[in-house]
Amino acid sequence: MRDWDLERGEFLSQIDVASHFLQLFDGFPDVYVFVKNRAGETLFCSSQLPRNHGFQTLDEMLGKTDQELTPGPLAEKYLADDAEIYRTGKPLPPQLEICIDPIGLPDWYRTCKYPVKNRLGEVIGIMGTFQLASSDIGSDFSLGGLEPARQLLRQDLLRFPEIEQLARSCHCSARHFQRQFLATFGTSPRTYWMKLRIREACQRLTSSSSSIAHISEELGFFDQSSFTKHFRKHTGQTPADYRKHRRIAMRRSSSSGSNIDE
């Protein structure tokens, strides 16, 4: 009888780890993969990921940690996830969380994170994938038939639809709809809707000069205090801090571009 464990080990030992498997993800838009060592330093990633952080090549991203690649509060969330994996030695359940998108804005991604173990079973790093959750990727089948409800949630950021209405759009019962939504997106319909509102707020804070109070009113929050509370809960920053940090980053990016042109 053939020893498949032995044959798999021999096969893997011949692979150039810098290529092959990671290339599988290059054919999927808005899907990224990363591998970090125990120190949190980037060792491997899909070819598109460096551009999300302002780099042109993987070499520029090698060795970078979450603290260097993302805003403080987001990095803290990633570090907490890493600590949980190192503590348990087990993958994290799929979740919906903020990551940086290709234009430097935070967006909602469905993430999966796993331990990387050596031959002794010790966790020596972390690998994971994240896929854009707010764009129309894949087919309705890949979303478990929930695309009609997702479209309803995106169409009106001022009023949360009734669960029964969302369920009817997907031709299922309210109970089945809520179970399926949670299993697919890792969060409830109402929380998903709130995340969409916060995402829109991030875009307006970055692209417009409107006051925070005006943006709060436009997006239907009770008052600026309520808006700030929800914004901080989902991003780790106040709207004012977020706008300040984004403007600083944009000025740096503009300055770098000017230097390159020169």
TrEMBL record:
Pfam families: HTH_18, PAS_4. InterPro entries: Homeodomain-like_sf, HTH_AraC, PAS-like_dom_sf, PAS_4, Tscrpt_reg_AraC-type_HTH. The keyword DNA-binding applies. Keywords: DNA-binding, Transcription, Transcription regulation. GO terms for molecular function: DNA-binding transcription factor activity; sequence-specific DNA binding. SUPFAM superfamilies: Homeodomain-like, PYP-like sensor domain (PAS domain). PROSITE patterns: HTH_ARAC_FAMILY_2. Residues 147-245 form the HTH araC/xylS-type domain. PANTHER family: ARAC-FAMILY TRANSCRIPTIONAL REGULATOR, HTH-TYPE TRANSCRIPTIONAL REGULATOR EXSA. This is HTH araC/xylS-type domain-containing protein. It comes from Planctopirus hydrillae.
